[in-house]
Amino acid sequence: MLRLLLGLGALQKAVSSEAASKTLQATSLQKMRAVIQRVSRAHVSVGEEVVGKIGPGLLVLLGVAKADTQADADYLANKILGLRIFEDQDGKMNLSLAKTHGAVLAVSQFTLYGDVRKGRRPSFDQAAPPQMANELYEYLVRKIREAGITCETGRFQAMMQVELVNDGPVTILLDSNRTF
Q1: Fewer CB atoms < 10 Å away: N or C end of the chain?
Q2: 167 and 116 belong to one structural domain
């Protein structure tokens, strides 16, 4: 009888642990994401019009989720500003944007929340509604600018063409849930 009770206790812990793991996985899908690329130059166009253009710096593709808040944008802005992914005089990744006088090109990209785990057509259920996503995108851009970094942008909800020269190549994935 005691073995049976201990066995049930272990089973409950395992089920509880599995549920916690699934909750954590679901939560990680619901936080702000960014793909950061170190570039020698980049620009974004809408039709024939170039709406944002930078020289050396970072191209930031930003995805905003339903559960995101300004705290998520603050975390990513600070992380982006502090990333030491530019080479120093010894060729080591040791310098940040501020140290290199680099710029940011921030482009909103809801497709970072494209979920293709079921089927072949992406589901964007975790992406924030447009108004909320735009507010948080603009907030993040404002935070970068307030730090004294030039920050160019794309045009929210427009069909854009992004051209870049990835320097390195260096590409970093970030999310405000710190999954990667």
Answers
A1: N
A2: yes
- Choosing from 111, 157, 161, 171, which is the catalytic residue? 111
Same domain? 3 vs 89: no
Domain ranges, residue 45 = 31-175
Shared domain for 65 and 132, answered yes or no, is yes
Least confident of 3-7, 60-64, 118-122, 138-142: 3-7
Residue with tokens 């929210």: 156
> 100: pLDDT confidence band, cut at 50, 70 and 90?
very high
pLDDT for the residue numbered 27? 45
Contact 36, 166 (CB under 8 A): no
**Which region holds residue 173: left if phi is over 0, alpha if psi is between -120 and 50, else beta?**
beta
Tell me if residue 156 is catalytic: no
Residue 100 bears catalytic tag? no
